[in-house]
Amino acid sequence: MTVARIVFPPLSHVGWGALKHLVPEVKRLGAKQILVITDPMLEKIGLVEQVTSPLRQAGYSVHVYTDVVPEPPLATGEKAVAFARDGEFDLVIGVGGGSALDLAKLAAVLAVHDGSVADYLNLTGTRALEKKGLPKILIPTTSGTGSEVTNISVLSLETTKDVVTHDYLLADVAIVDPQLTVSVPPRVTAATGIDALTHAVEAYVSVNASPTSDGLAIAAMRLISRSLRKAVENGTDKQARTDMANGSYLAGLAFFNAGVAGVHALAYPLGGQFHIAHGESNAVLLPYVMGYIRQSCTKRMADILNALGGNSSFLSEVEASYRCVEELERIVADVGIPKTLGEFGIPESALESLTKDAVQQKRLLARSPLPLLEADIRAIYEAALAGTIVEPNQE
């Protein structure tokens, strides 16, 4: 029997009002000079002040760094690392969505390393991380990326994405407070929510799935499926926001331990070439990838259907797997995310370059229950462009 490697961050505070644990944790970590990395919009709307104000009142020196953009390119990562190296910081706090949290992780670790960020990239880097770096506290303000509990920092390259990944990137403390997500607008709520759902779904069908990751993934799917539509419709719904925060957190733990696969592999080039938000890239591809690999994991897709609120009791596994794909399509449509690549302005002429870049995501593709070769990837992109679910050897 395969032995699963299970890793969790050292400490998490999860729940409404969890931000109250920030100052005690900073004190425990012995910090004095704090670098807060966050999105400029969050600073503008006053959300960052909820983090910095109690720290300053407690006597800590706080510097807020806001050179953060969605889907951060390599150059943005290089800037954040250079800033962290030049300062005399002894703690990094990331506040925001996945982009801010990923940059915070990167800056904290590479602040004590030599060389460029490019030297440490998964696909092309030649150097290995050797030191843990500065302590880091990660505080998500969206319910989706799971970045607060993973060891990955994602960066956009010219036409695709790559990652820096190592357990040194794990947070020392994750603070998941759904109260911080109330102001997230509906479209972002939808995109990040489907991102979290994708994490859970892909973790559950991953070849690296284990009983531990399965439990996390199923619980995440149940929470997200019952609350995402409500959170999109009414951002002030406390229960929906709490469910989404918990669901995103559990999905993050699930995919960190089991991995994501085809959906993410094909989504990376959409972000790299067309700058489509990561959550929306996953959302538009989710039904098409799952429909394509359906035959390789029918039992697991029947389980997913049940977790999404369906009922497979009177269906065969095959029938339930088809119903699962339909339910995934329905969820994406219900939260207002476009159904096809064409609706995102992606032309048929781009399919060749998208396929070429997706094939390079071998780290992700290796986890798919159905091996996805170049022809398969092309077929899925074509299906997503046409808006028609296809399966292998089916036009």
TrEMBL record:
GO terms for molecular function: alcohol dehydrogenase (NAD+) activity; long-chain-alcohol dehydrogenase activity; metal ion binding. Its EC number is 1.1.1.192. Residues 189-385 form the Fe-containing alcohol dehydrogenase-like C-terminal domain. It is an enzyme of class 1 (oxidoreductase). It comes from the Bacteria. InterPro entries: ADH_Fe/GldA, ADH_Fe_C, ADH_Fe_CS, Alcohol_dehydrogenase_Fe. It catalyses: a long-chain primary fatty alcohol + 2 NAD(+) + H2O = a long-chain fatty acid + 2 NADH + 3 H(+). Gene3D superfamilies: 3.40.50.1970, Dehydroquinate synthase-like - alpha domain. Residues 13-178 form the Alcohol dehydrogenase iron-type/glycerol dehydrogenase GldA domain. PANTHER family: ALCOHOL DEHYDROGENASE, ALCOHOL DEHYDROGENASE 4. Belongs to the iron-containing alcohol dehydrogenase family. This is long-chain-alcohol dehydrogenase. It comes from Geobacillus subterraneus. The lineage of its organism: Bacteria, Bacillati, Bacillota, Bacilli, Bacillales.
